[in-house]
């Protein structure tokens, strides 16, 4: 599945790279999910020319803020044709609210 679509880029028109630097509680504008694991990406900034995102990754064993290329996520082979995809039900929210939902086991 193509993640770096024009529709995805449109979410970040006002939030290019470094636009939220220094902001204590950043806006999370998109969420990607891996249907085969507990991996979640909460994306706060996006650079459409390089298809690179910045945000919070909740991994299997670690949680971290960082930069990640969407092209790499598009190449991950998942079982039964499943793919990493945007969460269609996600609504933009502050980072603190997104973390509270994740900590409580709620669907963000």
Considering the chains and any ligands shown, give keywords for the structure.
single chain; two-stranded antiparallel ribbon; alpha+beta; five-stranded antiparallel β-sheet; 108 residues
Structure description:
Helices cover about 20% and strands about 30% of the residues. The protein has three helices and seven strands; from the N terminus they run αβββββαββα. A five-stranded antiparallel beta sheet has the order 5-4-3-2-6. A two-stranded antiparallel ribbon has the order 1-7. The longest helix has 9 residues, at about 95-105. The protein is globular and about 40 Å long. The mean pLDDT is about 90.
- Overall spatial form: globular
Q: Level of helix content?
A: 10-25%
Whole-number average pLDDT?
90
Number of helices: 3
From the alpha-carbon coordinates, what is the Rg to the nearest angstrom? 13 Å
State the separation between the terminal residues, measured CA to CA: 21 Å
Strand order of the largest sheet: 5-4-3-2-6
Largest sheet: 5 strands, antiparallel
Order of helices and strands: HEEEEEHEEH
Q: What share of the residues does DSSP label as strand, in percent?
A: 25-35%
Number of E-type strands = 7
Sequence stretches where pLDDT stays below 50 over 5 or more residues: none
Taken together, the total number of domains comes to 1
Structural class computed from helices and strand pairing? alpha+beta
């Amino acid at each position: 599945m193509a993640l770096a679509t024009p529709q995805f880029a449109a979410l970040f028109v006002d939030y290019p790279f470094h636009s939220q630097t220094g902001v204590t509680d950043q806006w999370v504008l998109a969420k990607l999910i891996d249907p085969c694991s507990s991996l979640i990406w909460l994306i706060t900034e996006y650079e459409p020319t390089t298809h690179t995102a910045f945000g919070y990754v909740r991994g299997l064993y670690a949680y971290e803020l960082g930069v990640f290329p969407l092209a790499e996520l598009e190449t991950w082979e998942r079982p039964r044709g499943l793919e990493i995809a945007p969460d269609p039900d996600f609504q933009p929210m502050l980072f603190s609210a997104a973390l509270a939902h994740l900590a409580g086991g709620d669907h963000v």
